[in-house]
Amino acid sequence: MSNTNKQAKFTAPGMSNESAEKTIAALDNRMVALIDLQLTLKHIHWNVVGPNFIGVHEMLDPQVEAVREMTDTIAERIATLGGIPVGTPKSIVDRRTWNEYSLGKGLVTEHLGALDKVYNGINADHRKAIETVSDLDPVSEDMLISQLADLEQFQWFVRAHIESATGELTQ
């Protein structure tokens, strides 16, 4: 029998079980997205080629590490609220609501154009999660806001590589 669907019979003091369940669901969605993001970033790191390769290659590892920290923070918050963070590969694939990253080996501009779209989804969904938890759990809200600030900066780093001198994204 699997323990992945069990939930503790407690949550954080002062928080209702209903609020905790809604918060856990929002955080679980973000955890899945961030696990997927860190793997996608590493995939790009390994497969990016062409002019500016080294700059992009070296830009991505700190993003991977930061996203891993974000994932860990969210997983631990889920556990704190009485939930069970499930991060096994099949469970991640089963719970994600977006398509697999489709590029293999590719030019810097191709990967960064695709990564910009990934960040569009990640960051928009982080904003939605912030809205969801804002009245439920200020601790989770604060955590997500802090993460979004970093995620938006990472997207800016990506966009700086594919932005024209007139401010247009070239991909």
Automatic annotation (TrEMBL):
Alphabetized PANTHER family for the sequence: DNA PROTECTION DURING STARVATION PROTEIN (PTHR42932:SF3), GENERAL STRESS PROTEIN 20U (PTHR42932)
Organism field: Pseudoalteromonas marina
Organism classification: Bacteria, Pseudomonadati, Pseudomonadota, Gammaproteobacteria, Alteromonadales
Protein name: DNA starvation/stationary phase protection protein Dps
Gene3D superfamilies per the UniProt record, alphabetical: 1.20.1260.10
Family to which this protein belongs: Belongs to the Dps family.
InterPro entries in alphabetical order: DPS_DNA-bd, DPS_DNA-bd_CS, Ferritin-like, Ferritin-like_SF, Ferritin_DPS_dom
Superkingdom field: Bacteria
A Pfam family annotated for this UniProt entry: Ferritin
SUPFAM superfamilies with a match to the protein in the record: Ferritin-like
Family matches, as NCBIfam families: PRK09448.1
Domain Ferritin/DPS: 24-163
